[in-house]
């Protein structure tokens, strides 16, 4: 009888463990340094704050790093894989983990919330950290980022100002996907406190920066091309 009871208990524990998954939370710890603000340092009247990762992130890839720091929101959004928010960039809409509860409080200016049920995916020679795995979960060792927009829009993810931040994973190991589904992560925005951790945006709280507009040179070339086209038609 004891043997049967022990076996049943062990089976329950194993099954419970297999069904568990990580919770990734975000908080500013209630301090001014960790608040998201506008480019002028003012409180945001609306906002979308998302936890996620950059698909194929590689700090040695100068082209990617330039894109992430360019201020081109559409290009950043194309690389950003959110957790807890429907994503359609690679086919049918999928949501990694449970629905995100991350909320920006427009009254206090503070942010908190989490995404539960995020499954670790084992890394291998063919499954690399920061690579998109669909609804299967997030590859172990993947670096987490936070994308903050000054508009409440998780669908098109648009805005006139935004910030993209990520704490150094060597200094703040919480900003990487754990290997165990029994391990949770708590991302503190106050851990983002050096220039390299602000991929876009700036310190002094966490200030969003305006979305970049096309460079004047690009506009001039476009106008010159249009003028040449008109002359040829004449």
Write structural notes for this entry:
This protein is an alpha+beta fold. Helix content is 21%, strand content 24%. It has helices at residues 2-19, 62-68, 73-79, 216-233; strands at 22-27, 36-37, 48-54, 80-82, 103-104, 111-118, 120-121, 138-139, 144-149, 161-165, 185-188, 198-200, 202-203, 206-207, 209-210.
Structural class: alpha+beta
Order of helices and strands: HEEEHHEEEEEEEEEEEEH
Mean pLDDT: 85
Alpha carbon gyration radius? 21 Å
Work out the helix count.
Answer: 4
The unreliable regions are 1-19, 216-234
List keywords for this structure.
234 residues, alpha+beta, 4-stranded mixed beta sheet, 15 strands, 24% strand, globular, disordered N terminus, disordered C terminus
Quickly describe the structure.
Helices cover 21% and strands 24% of the residues. The chain is of the alpha+beta class and 234 residues long.
SSE blueprint:
Blueprint: H1 2-19, E1 22-27, E2 36-37, E3 48-54, H2 62-68, H3 73-79, E4 80-82, E5 103-104, E6 111-118, E7 120-121, E8 138-139, E9 144-149, E10 161-165, E11 185-188, E12 198-200, E13 202-203, E14 206-207, E15 209-210, H4 216-233
Parallel strand pairs: 1-11, 2-14, 7-8
Antiparallel strand pairs: 1-6, 3-4, 3-9, 5-6, 9-10, 10-12, 10-15, 13-14
């Amino acid at each position: 009888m004891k043997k049967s009871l022990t076996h049943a208990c062990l089976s329950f524990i194993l099954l419970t463990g297999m069904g568990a998954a990580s919770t990734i939370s975000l908080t500013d710890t209630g301090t001014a340094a960790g608040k998201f603000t506008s480019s002028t340092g003012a409180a945001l009247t609306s906002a979308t704050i998302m936890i996620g990762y950059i698909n194929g992130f590689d700090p040695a890839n100068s082209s990617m790093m330039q894109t992430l720091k360019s201020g081109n929101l559409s290009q950043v959004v194309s690389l950003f894989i959110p957790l807890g928010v429907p994503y359609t960039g690679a086919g049918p809409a999928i949501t990694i983990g449970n629905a995100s509860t991350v909320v920006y409080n427009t009254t206090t200016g503070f942010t908190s919330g989490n995404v539960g049920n995020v499954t670790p995916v084992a890394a291998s020679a063919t499954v690399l950290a920061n690579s998109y795995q669909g609804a299967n979960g997030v590859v172990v060792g993947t670096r987490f980022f936070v994308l903050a927009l000054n508009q409440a829009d998780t669908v098109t993810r648009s805005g006139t100002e935004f910030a993209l931040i990520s704490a150094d994973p060597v200094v703040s190991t919480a900003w990487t996907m754990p290997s165990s589904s029994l391990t949770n992560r708590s991302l503190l925005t106050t851990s983002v406190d050096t220039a390299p951790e602000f991929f876009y945006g700036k310190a002094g709280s966490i200030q969003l920066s305006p979305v970049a507009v096309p460079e004047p040179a690009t506009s001039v070339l476009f106008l010159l091309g249009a003028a040449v086209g008109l002359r040829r038609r004449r």
